[in-house]
Amino acid sequence: MEMRRQHFPGRAPIDAYGNGGFRFADMSHRGSILVLPSGIYGWEPAEPPRVSSEDLGRLFEEDPAPELLLLGTGEDLVPQGPELRQALRELGVTLELMSTGAAARTYNVLLAEARVVAAALLAVE
After folding, report:
1. Could you tell me which InterPro entries the record lists for this protein (predicted)?
2. Do 30 and 8 touch, CB atoms closer than 8 A?
């Protein structure tokens, strides 16, 4: 059986989160997700809840780059290292840290405003 990386090719609001996953576009996904203008991808950082620029590699390939990355760090806000913020700044992307729930809600508002935004959302139980 061939396992393929999960990918939804488009933008969609996050309908629900919790129980270790997310619901969007009439589908559910177990695990964390990376939401980009090019689509929604299954995503697992190497050492959650810490995220590195390597974990966000696909974000650095987006053209054009999103103006903002909402990083949902789980149930609680978890500070990230300065190297992540610097790498994003060099790309022209502003980083906003928040809980996963707050990040999902904020993403939906910005998506409705047609903003070019991305979200990296760690799954919560």
Report:
1. MTH938-like_sf, NDUFAF3/AAMDC
2. no
Cα 79 from Cα 100, distance rounded (Å): 13
What is the residue extent of each domain of the chain? 7-121
Task: Please name the residue that has the structure tokens 């910005």.
Answer: 110
pTM of the model: 0.92
Tokens at residue 6, please?
């999960």
Q: Which fold has domain 7-121?
A: Hypothetical Protein Mth938; Chain: A, (3.40.1230)
pLDDT, tens digit, 9 for 90 and up, residues 82-96: 999 999 999 999 999
> Could you give the CA distance from residue 29 to residue 51 in angstroms, rounded to a whole number?
20
What whole-number distance in Å separates Cα of residue 83 and Cα of residue 90? 11
Question: From its phi and psi, is residue 76 left (phi > 0), alpha (psi between -120 and 50) or beta?
Answer: beta
